[in-house]
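Internal tracking record. Fields below are filled automatically when a chain is submitted to the structure queue. Please do not edit lines marked as system-generated. If the sequence contains nonstandard residues, flag them in the REMARKS field before resubmitting.
Queue: standard
Priority: normal
Entity type: single polypeptide chain
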Amino acid sequence: MSGPLLDRIDIFVDVPRVDYDKLTGTSEGESSTEVRPRVMAASALQDARLAGRKATCNADMPARDVTAFCKVTPRGKEVLHTAMRQLHLSARGYHRVLKVSRTIADLEGADLIDTPHIAEALQYRKREGE
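SYSTEM-GENERATED OUTPUT FOLLOWS
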C-alpha cells in the first residue's frame, strides 16, 4: 500500500501465533468486565470534550480540534519531534498519532498526553518494510 493510504489507517496490530504453553497456561489477562469502566469513562470524556462539535470521538477530530485538545507534556513533545524526524511522519500521520495518544491518555484519565501515551500510539503505526 502507498504511504498516503497507510496514513489513513490509525492502528496496525501484528497478531503472532500463540505458543502452546500460553494457550494451555493458567495466566489470565484483564476481563471485559474489568476494562469496561475505563472504556466508558474515556468515552464520556470524549463526549464532553467534543460536545457541540462535528466530531463524535477522538478519531474524527479535525486538525484544529487536535491542536486544541491534544495537549502534550514537554517530554512528550520531544518524543513526537524525534518520531517525526526518524519515522518521516506526514502531517496526517502526526495528527493520527496524536489522536490515538489522546485516546490512550483518556483511558488512563490523564489530562495531558505524555511520553508513554505517544510511545504506545507509535507502536500501532505500520513500520517500513512490513
